[in-house]
């Protein structure tokens, strides 16, 4: 095996690594789009919405990356077939097949749990929320109202699929004003829009009902968008339900990164 052959194979390996990293990014974007469409399926009916076009573009990109990965993998396999001495692969296979003790210790492929790329990326996304502030529903399932507050994610357990979060606002009912801690399923968590990722930030048109942080508090309530924003970084002008003053609902400004989609079946 010449040094040129080795160098060429190393370059192909680096390209494979790059392609796989690109695929992970694309799959994460696809998963984000899936979550958006699942929570607000009606968005595709809005004039000017490009959610489905963007999803198609992401799937096309994922397909092209996958085909490139397969092409380079086949090239590497071809090079290895040429470089491996004749009979080498067969001898190695016979040695493994003859080792009965090792076969007993090995677990069959069918017994090994495997995550699909979308599930794996979803798990990685949930784990990446550690240290982030998110909206969380902390009321009991059978409660009369849904109580949503700002909490900080301290841990995501991939086995139980539960978030461990802390309400950093000292509880009035807690002894010594201690911070309240919760274990919540992913369905009780809504990540806030990221200021650093405006491209994927969901836009809420006038008349749309949302869940938003009430100014000066760490609690989220149902509100209605009053007017369109000129830029993605602009605040939303909202009217909160049950916020009546002098017979009318005051209009309040709320930062865009404290406004999320209203969950289905929200009770207030």
From TrEMBL:
Its main location: nucleus. Keywords: Chromatin regulator, Coiled coil, Nucleus, Transcription, Transcription regulation. It is found in: Nucleus. Residues 124-268 form the SGF29 C-terminal domain. Residues 88-117 are annotated as: Disordered. GO terms for biological process: chromatin organization; response to salt stress. Residues 94-112 have a biased composition (Basic and acidic residues). GO terms for cellular component: nucleus; SAGA complex. Pfam families: SGF29_Tudor. Residues 6-36 form a coiled coil. This is SAGA-associated factor 29 homolog isoform X1. It comes from Nicotiana sylvestris.
